[in-house]
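Per reviewer request, we include the raw input and output of the structure prediction for the construct analysed in the revised manuscript.
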Amino acid sequence: MAQLITILVLVFSAWWLYRRFVSDARKLAEKSRRAEKERQTGAIGTLVKDPATGEYRLKREGE
C-alpha cells in the first residue's frame, strides 16, 4: 500500500511540474514575441485601455 501511495505522489508531482513548465514556457514565448514586435515597430511599450476610467496606460509585466 505504501508503494502505491508513493507512486501516486510521484506521478502527481511529475504532472504538476510538467504543467508548470508548460505554463512558464508559454509566458516566456509570449513575452519574447511581444518584445520582438516592439523592436520591429520601434515601440517603447504596449498601451492598454483601462475599462473603468477609459484612460490608456503601459501594459504591466504580469498582464
